[in-house]
Write a structure and sequence with these properties.
mainly alpha, 69% helix, globular, 458 residues, disordered C terminus
Length: 458
């Protein structure tokens, strides 16, 4: 069987994920803590126009996703984001492996910190229904990370089924919130629609973009997807469309219920916007139990997807030699990259114990863990089109060379507003990653002189 339609992939991984699995895997990863927190901040920045900001962010992410989709089908291997640069960054193997390593490690940084932050947030949301939970933030976070690890260890099918059930529950609760919110809708809250200038509007777009990033879970597990040539592009675009519609509906309901004047610096609506909106719906059960339950479910699905995605990227880096080969180990029974799962979970757990450094870590996660991987893979898309003429992917993104140019513009919008502190922390992190690669190169130069088996490149 070909790599596009087979039931078994290389390195012991098995193709078990269908279209619905992939869509819900992506939606479950995207619809996490972002929708329970960020609408308050986007409302503070752009007022009612933040509803448009969420739509624009979703459309921009679809443009970036088209580049990823073609890459994922050209190279449908586990750990996709780290695989693409290794296959497309010119003829020099060392350059390609460095780009792959930088892409993979930065992507993992974003995912691991997402898992850590989500784990710490679980106790806060549980505290709405069970106030005593707020006194056990770290123990609850560690328990959540352990549970996420165990679900992932049992196998990608188990992870997918758990995610399917949790995502269905989450979507139901959010749709109930939207339905009740629309019955209390106040049109005057949208007059005027634009309450700030372009700079704040694009800052809101930047913030909203971070809520759409987890669709990259699909390329990262492409080697475990049934019929990836058809499933991957459909799943990516469909999941982004579903998430964009859901996010927009939630934000529309939020602004229809909460007056514009409530979106002020220091106001509760900027930190728990849906909780504030729920308190105005006249349905105490929604605020006291349903929304906290939805938040916990959303956060845990984000943890499941983040742990799974990061472990596959670590697996890919171990397979190409930029990380020790031990990270490419696959569990003989469960058929998952268990060493990668252990590494990701241990790092996330360790970071959970030191929450006082979270601001710096959040900055690194947002810039290094989001912007850098997207930029590298947009360049990978150009490399696929111009250097890898020996590869013919079954899906070809529309737009020609204009598509990556537009994608880079979209990415630049997401990076607007970075201050000097954010830049320094991000550059420092990249320098540390580069230092490890240099040490690895000096200690194992043989890894960088091997001839590529799949191409004629030296």
């Amino acid at each position: 069987m070909s790599e596009y339609d087979g039931s078994t992939a290389d390195d012991g991984l098995t193709r078990t994920l269908g279209l619905l699995d992939c869509v819900l895997l992506s939606v479950g990863g995207m619809v996490g803590s972002a929708i329970f927190v960020f609408p308050g901040s986007t409302g503070l920045l752009a007022g009612p126009a933040s509803t448009l900001a969420w739509v624009v962010a979703g459309l921009l992410m679809m443009i970036i996703a088209l580049c990823y989709t073609e890459l994922a089908l050209a190279f449908p291997k586990a750990g996709g984001p780290a695989v693409f640069p290794a296959e497309t960054f010119g003829r020099n193997r060392t350059v390609r492996l460095f780009a792959s390593y930088l892409e993979g490690t930065s992507y993992c940084i974003g995912m691991v910190f997402s898992v850590t932050i989500s784990a710490l947030a679980i106790a806060q949301y549980l505290g709405i229904a069970f106030p005593r939970a707020k006194g056990y933030v770290v123990p609850i976070a560690l328990a959540a990370i352990a549970l996420s690890f165990l679900v992932n260890l049992v196998g990608v099918t188990s992870t997918s089924r758990t995610n399917l059930v949790l995502s269905a529950l989450l979507l139901t609760i959010l749709l109930v919130f939207v339905a009740i919110g629309l019955t209390r809708f106040e049109p005057t809250n949208y007059d005027p629609f634009f309450t700030s200038g372009p700079a704040k509007f694009f800052a809101a777009v930047q913030l909203a973009l971070t809520g759409y990033g987890a669709w990259t879970a699909i390329p990262s597990v492409a080697e475990e997807v049934k019929r990836p040539a058809k499933t991957v592009p459909r799943a990516i675009l469909l999941s982004l469309l579903v998430t964009t519609v859901l996010y927009t509906a939630v934000v529309v309901a939020l602004h229809g219920v909460v007056a514009p004047s409530a979106f002020a610096e220091g106001s509760p609506v900027t930190t728990v916007p849906l909780g504030v909106a729920a308190s105005k719906l006249g349905v105490p059960m929604v605020r006291q139990y349903f929304l906290p339950l939805a938040a916990v479910v959303a956060i845990f699905t984000t943890m499941l997807v983040g742990t799974m995605s990061a472990s596959r990227v670590v697996f890919a880096l171990g397979r190409n030699g930029t990380l020790p080969r031990a990270f490419a180990a696959v569990h003989s029974r469960f058929q998952v990259p268990w060493v990668g799962l252990v590494a990701v979970s241990l790092v996330a757990a360790a970071l959970t114990i030191f929450p006082e450094y979270f601001y710096e870590l959040l900055v690194i996660a947002s810039v290094v863990g989001t912007g850098l991987p997207y930029a590298l893979n947009i360049v990978s898309f150009v490399g696929l089109r111009h250097y890898r003429t020996d590869v013919t992917p079954p899906f070809r993104a529309p737009g020609g060379d204009a598509l990556p140019a537009v994608a880079l513009v979209a990415l630049s919008v997401a990076m607007v507003g970075l201050g000097s502190t954010e830049v320094l922390w991000s550059v420092g992190s990249i320098a540390l990653l580069g230092t490890y690669f240099l040490v690895r190169y000096l200690r194992r130069p043989d890894l960088f002189r091997q001839r590529d088996a799949a191409t004629n490149w030296e």
